[in-house]
Amino acid sequence: MQDKETQLTFRDFHFEDTLQDGLDSMGFEHPTPIQEQTIPIIQKGKDLIACAQTGTGKTAAFLLPILDKLSKVPSETTNTLIIVPTRELALQIDQALQGFAYFTSVSSLPIYGGGDGQVFEQEKKALVHGANIIIATPGRLMSHLNMGYVKLDDLQHLILDEADRMLDMGFVDDILKIVTFLPEKRQTLLFSATMPPKIRTLATKLLREPEQVSLAVSKPAEGVDQSAYLVYDKQKNALIKHLLKDENLNSVIIFASTKIKVKELERDLQRAHLKAKAIHSDLEQAEREEVLRNFRNRSLRILVATDILSRGIDIEDINLVVNYDVPHDAEDYVHRVGRTARAASTGQAITFINELNQHKFLQIEKLIGYEVKKVPLPEFIGPGPAYEPLVRKKQFNKPDNKNFKRKKKFNKPRKD
């Protein structure tokens, strides 16, 4: 582990200024281990096999060097194709890309099943006119490729994310067919949580003399008292105010998934006469710094922050970290929990799990290697949802699920 003085920062990768501006605005300072190891390899143009669990920061690991190249040498054609197993992952990657590329001119579009004819036409337009980065599920992309209008002659990068899952879902033939439409001279990156023989067989067909990176994920410190509540969204504010009645908690960070939630929670806590301030992307840098300064010197007791800014908040000696929403990446969970229990001290980490995010939290438990205790809700709040993570997995993680409505997007990425 590097000392804080010598720890690598994103500036050490010498990204183009507009991309670095995006990272600075999001509070991204230090890369995760997978980013630290893979970004230099990708920058050199080498093929790569990376074995890393979901939640290790791998999305930024492959997006940032690609965005850097596109920022330095802009393109009017499709430069990068990212193939993923599900529409949920396609949307997740595209949302991350929007944040990273906010100050650049890079365009992108997620392409997946479902939607009406208008959506299909929008996807066709992006493919014909060359959105810089296409994030696609295999089946939907094949539908477009079979119609003959997709031009990928200038493609420079092919990325396969969650490759083991795609093979488990039977997409290997589609992937091999898609590759026949791509230039032979390209950079290919394969990311997988596991590396069974069938993945290595696929890699030999697609990659040329690849570099290999395999990463083990760290676990939360033993001094952290971790717990979780099964709670409906409408119950969360009552629960958080109940927990914050403990005046011994003099330093609390609450992470929520969107700035709208952060603003609403800030107002609700202030109405309850709790000393809370929010930090999100709508604040000017000077305003953010003032809030953080007040929180560090303990003149502010409660800090409410968006997920997108969570990595940039470097504050130690936190009594309590609350995940108001389940973190999207398991690595973010480990990172946040690590804010407590520094230097052999103890701390608390509490996560609110609604009925839709139970499987996501199960993935966090798999990553850290044990089950986090589930605490009953106080009686006055009422009963929460039943714990059924495997049932939710079957319902919400199907590829090309027709019940999922996509957002229209084919322009410059928006802010979080």
Summarize the structure.
The chain has 416 residues and is α/β, with parallel strands linked by helices.
Query: H/E order of the elements?
Result: HHEHEHEHEHEHHEHEEHEHEHEEHEHEH
* CATH fold label of the largest domain: Rossmann fold
- Unreliable stretches covering 5 or more consecutive residues: 392-416
Question: How far apart, in Å, are the first and last alpha carbons?
Answer: 31 Å
Q: What is the number of independent domains? A: 2
Q: Compute the average pLDDT.
A: 84
Helix content: 25-40%
Topology, number of strands: 14
Reading off the top of the CATH hierarchy, the class of the largest domain is best stated as: Alpha Beta
Number of helices: 15
CATH superfamily of the largest domain: P-loop containing nucleotide triphosphate hydrolases
DSSP strand content: 15-25%
**Major beta sheet, specifics?**
7 strands, parallel
The secondary structure category is alpha/beta
User: What is the 3D shape?
Assistant: globular
Radius of gyration: 22 Å
CATH architecture label of the largest domain: 3-Layer(aba) Sandwich
Give the neighbour order of strands across the main sheet: 3-4-2-5-6-1-7
